[in-house]
Amino acid sequence: MVLKNKLAMGIAATMLVLPLAACGSNNETTNNQPANNAETKTNEGANNAANTGGETADAGTKLTGDFEIQYFVGGYGDAWWKKVIADFQAANPELNIKALGGPKINEQNKPRWIAGTPPDFVYIDGPELNDRQLVEDGQLEDLTEWIQTATNVDGDKIIDILAQAPQQYDSKIYNIPLVLNSWGIFWDKALFAEKGWTEPTDYQSFLDVSEKIKAAGITPFIHTGKYPYYINGAFLFPAIVSANNNDYTVLQDMAANKVEAYESPAVMTALNKIVELRDKGFIDKGSVQINHTDSQMLFLQHKDAFIANGLWLPNEMSKDVPQGFQFGFIPSVGQDNGGKIVANTSTATVAIAKNAKNKDAAKAFLQFIFSKAQASQWAELSGAPSNIKGDISASNAPSHVKDAAKYLTDANTVVIPTITYNADVDKAMQDASAALAAGTIEPADWVKRVTDAVKKAAK
């Protein structure tokens, strides 16, 4: 799942119900899902509304007119979107809902955003959309006051049931996290059991088992070289936090374009771990030119034992997972022996366009989707965590999602809140990490490249 780029160059439960502060965030995504029609009018689903609390928060107000919803289809699929839109349509029969969804919907709708005639409601995920860029370009409705008192269709205050609070931009809220993803490292539990390999719990155990994997003729580690934010999100950023005494504010300082943060010893320590993996021959040399689905396929075929990815992976590759394959998952492997697990979370958010023509329907839809019923449906239909607090142990969520929940709810886990970097700086980090893993640059070069981009962005 490939996450979000700039909108305007012109312009990641389950609703995993976690008490915490992409497919594929940090911020960029593509997918292998078949394209949907760019516009689908949703009029079916009347039989489903009763199961989801089928009325808007303002029960006495009928929603009418046209209401457009833009949603990207990536690793999480589109089953939940089709279901929730059908439910909302059944609850509001006089509303004319137009669902604009598909793998290329962001690109298709880009001219509308530039022209100031966007859809009313947007799910911010996938290429061509970057939440920070949307905010900076004045494209999103200010929800700061509304979210303080807004309740969902069950009467719960939305802000109180969110596992991760909305990100603020100059003390303002413009978008609300719907999905709560964790980056991390995956492997096949069945393969490890068959070979007698020990599952990693820290950096040294990761190195030790990688030696055995390499000796068995399998490449230990693969990443998505065409989308290097995968290795950044799943390996580099957690390793930086571990090296910074489990303090994730170093990443927030990086996002604030503080040059000294990029020059910190913690960054250099983490970069040197990538170099160690590279120099030991643990990184698949084909990674540099490979995309997310191709790398995931090699992983499923046991050409590579570990892959850096997000929790959408099993769902995104569901049609290709071999029989007996059992996904193992840990949020981080960069910590020292006895060190805390570091979970680098990412979110995909939802928002209302500032120029939306039907803001009443858009706000009602927000109240509708942030409910426990829809949280449960999200978990079952997307195979991924979302952002509403609750216990998912008895749900039908996939086992890897429940495993992730155990880490994310553990008091000893360091949970990194979603951090959005300047798009140009993020691209510089991605390119530098790909080059570092491939052996064409060294850590000092990585820092120079990125700080040059930081200085340019700060002008």
From TrEMBL:
InterPro entries associated with the record: Bact_solute-bd_prot1, SBP
Signal peptide start-end: 1-24
Chain intervals for the UniProt region annotation (Disordered): 29-59
Alphabetical keyword list: Signal
Keyword Signal: yes
PANTHER family tied to this protein: ARABINOSE-BINDING PROTEIN-RELATED, DIACETYLCHITOBIOSE BINDING PROTEIN DASA
Full protein name: N-acetylglucosamine transport system substrate-binding protein
Natural source organism: Paenibacillus methanolicus
